[in-house]
Amino acid sequence: MGVPPAIEVLKERATLLRESLQKSQTITGNMVDILGSFDHRLSALETAMRPTQVRTHAIRRAHENIDKTLKSADVILVQFDITRQAEAKILRGPHEDLESYLEAIDQLRRNVQFFTSNKTFKWSDGVLNHANILLSKAIMKLEEEFKQLLSTFSKPVEPDRLFECLPSSLRPSAGSPGQQGEGERKPSSASNSDQQGKSLETAIYKPPTLIPPRLLPLLHDLALQTIQAGKQDQCVKIYCETRSSALEQSLRKLGVEKLSKEDVQKMPWEVLEAKIGNWIHYMRIAVKLLFAAERKICDQIFDGINVLKDRCFAEVTADSVLMLFSFGDAIAKSKRSPEKLFVLLDMYEIMRELHSEIETIFEGKACSETRDAAHNLSRRLAQTAQETFGDFEEAVEKDATKTAVLDGTVHPLTSYVINYVKFLFESEAKDLLGDDWVQRHRRIVQQNANQYKRVAWAKILQSLSVQGQSSSGGSIPGGSDGGNSSGVSRATIKERLKSFNMQFEELHQRQSQWTVPDPELRESLRLAVAEVLLPAYRSFIKRFGPLIDSGKNPQKYVRYTPEDLERMLGEFFEGKTWNEQKR
């Protein structure tokens, strides 16, 4: 039985596949041998190349180190160059270009910080020493420049400049520089006082320019750099000594002087009163102008350094404040007397007026002593004024004077007390006491005036009265002998006229020497007397004059016409002397 053809074909293919596999295995073995040979060669090559690779890596590391070193050297060289440039600027000093000088100091400070943080550098210690020495010299020159600028422009303010800064109503009159005359208290109406108070409240004060504004930023930078360099105490000392001296000189030029309690006690009252008036004026100028301006420049120069700002201002103003307040204290502690009450009140009033400004200008803990001193002075002035008024009240109560006043005017003590009290008022009484009180006392005055008419003129008016007189005793009835229908005798009429003349002349002589200070009351008294006396006299002369005219020496009895009497009444209460009356 034969093999099928398909199987034969399959056998042939299997034989071919076997042969192909055997060839592939042979080739694979050959390739493995070849690759093994390559691996051996590569290992040998790697071994041969390793020293070269090491050298190459070392060279690369060396290049990197060189680059780093060069970069570091560049930074250091830049710092050296900056130091050299800064040194050149510092050696030239701050006069030419202060801004550039301050920049050089900042550069030096940065250099010091750089070399301090890079002490591994070979010459860092030497460079640091040089930079620090240079920085110290720079700061010293800054101190000198700060002192020089401050001293050059810290001049005392002349009085005329200060007066120009005041409101026009408070400027001294020509010929009396520095004196305001507020020590003399003058009476004024309530409306005038209110208007004056309002005008002072709204008055505009213009503090003077103590240092040119363009210099303040430079002084601020100088102060700041000096303080940052650890020279705070030196900076404060320079500033306080310079500004304190200028401020004190300004006040002395104005007229302020330091007076003790003993100095005040020795002064005549007129001199002391004038000095008190000036002191009130000086206080306004000091607080509203000088201290306000001083505070402004202190705040600008020490801007951003609040602790030093308040401390410096307190130290600058301390002596000047003491000089002003010591006078007020001396007055408050001096021996009390009635005339001092008014100036004490004036002094208290100016302290009250300046209270809010003192609290504002002298703010901060460092200025607390000044604020306390101002408060204590106000309190002492008020207390002394109160005690002085109490002394005055007690003295009036104890006054035992009973001597009558010869000129009939108000008793000097009464007048003194009234004027004293009146000057204390914001100088109308009715506004304080009320209309009822005024009307009640006006009625009392009128009652006294009526009493005066009754007491002084009742008797003389009786001389002009003929009521109850009989017609006997030589009367001339009818009109045949110049008599009149009343039947009164000529002798009686003569006696009446003689009595009238004697009494009137006596009253005229005495009451012309009397004084009624109030013009309205003086005129009303004259009119009251004239309204009663003149009609009675005219009626008497008209009725009985013909009886006298027909007799002997009529002018001996009818000495005055009604017009003469009216003129003479006009001389009453003028306080004329006897010689003036005779003339």
Automatic annotation (TrEMBL):
Component of the exocyst complex. Residues 278-427 form the Exocyst complex subunit Exo70 C-terminal domain. Pfam families: Exo70_C (PF03081), Exo70_N (PF20669). GO terms for biological process: exocytosis; protein transport. GO terms for cellular component: exocyst. Residues 188-198 have a biased composition (Polar residues). Keywords: Exocytosis, Protein transport, Transport. GO terms for molecular function: phosphatidylinositol-4,5-bisphosphate binding. Residues 166-198 are annotated as: Disordered. Belongs to the EXO70 family. InterPro entries: Cullin_repeat-like_dom_sf (IPR016159), Exo70 (IPR004140), Exo70_C (IPR046364). This is Exocyst subunit Exo70 family protein. It comes from Dendrobium nobile (Orchid).
